[in-house]
Amino acid sequence: MSLRGGHLLFPTKQSPNCKEIASGKKQERPRNDIYLIKIIYVLFLFSLTACNAPIQPTPVEATSTFTIPTFTQTFTPTLEPTFTPIPPSPTTTPIPCNPLITDYCISNWNFLFQRPIFPPDNDSIDISYPYASTQNGRRDPHHGVEFQNEFGTPVYATGDGEVVFADTDKVTLFSQWSNFYGNLVVIKHENDFYTLYAHLSAILIKVGDVVNTGDLIGQVGQTGGATGSHLHFEVRQGGDMYDRFSTQNPELFFIPKNGTGALSITLNTPYERNYEFSLVITRFSDGFVMYVSSYTRGFEANPEDAVLNNLPVGDYKIAFNDQTGLNERIVRIEDGKLTEVVFENVK
Ligand SMILES: [Zn+2]
Fold first, then answer.
1. 297, 347, 345: which is closest to 322 by C-alpha?
2. Residue 145 Cα, ligand 1 centroid: separation in angstroms?
3. Whether CATH 2.60.40.10 fits 102-111+251-347
4. pLDDT tens, 64-112?
5. Domain map of the chain by residue range?
6. How many whole angstroms from 233 Cα to the centroid of ligand 1?
7. Most buried residue among 17, 121, 129, 259 by CB atoms closer than 10 A?
8. How far is the CA of 226 from the centre of ligand 1 (A)?
9. Predicted TM-score of the model (pTM)
10. What pLDDT, on a 0 to 100 scale, did the predictor assign at position 84?
11. In terms of CATH, what superfamily is 145-248?
């Protein structure tokens, strides 16, 4: 946009009357009429003066001087916020999550143990033969979990405690069979928890030794009834260390790795069952699918029927079939926590 608008220029025209007068047109002068000449002369002078007035202004271009407005915002609060602190009620108690009336519960579970195998060796359990599984009747009910590793892999104490057994089980039985566990180490922990390390190729501690979490105690082997090189690991609690019916699912006690949590699934049946449910667990983020069998008969004392540890945080779907059809539940896994799910009236 131009600021040089014509209307901003002052007019330069001279008055036509002044031009005529200034041109000095000759007039007849009466002889000897001095008086008249004087009058004319005075008038002439007057007209010249009149032509000079008003003084013509010099045409100038208007200079626009815009002052950029400055905005200074000042907020004036109309209402003064008032905070009225609510004192905590001393009678308020947290409402415990009830897995019977909610899809699932997430709790700060007291995970007790580190894993007995360290990376880069395999520190994940063999999901094809989990705790309390028979592999659909092909094997004996499993009282522990397997860490598949090659012969000689280091085995470490999963918690602080005292070594209470370090020998073969040929004479002292920890199951219904002699020499079932082979070279075996048992550590006693707080609250009468026992951890068992079986099929070892080498035992590197002795009874009475006090061990700390992560101490080297032996090496993976295939002694006893092992069909291949692996570590069989058990957690026992509630009986003495020889009581094979006091076993718990180790997956319920391993401290989850960063970014993972644990999942406990309970299937309440109205009658005693003699079969395992095949649970299909799908991770939504990448579609990864896990197949886990529930506990078999004889493990009714355990409150849950399947546990998976080290599940990356996220949402999962649990699905399984019973006699009435398909059952499904969507659950969430949170970092370092235990998600508990209960299916009622499973048939
Ligand atoms: Zn085993």
1. 347
2. 5
3. yes
4. 444 444 444 444 444 444 555 554 454 555 567 887 888 899 999 999 9
5. 14-52, 102-111+251-347, 145-248
6. 7
7. 129
8. 8
9. 0.71
10. 52
11. Glucose Permease (Domain IIA) (2.70.70.10)
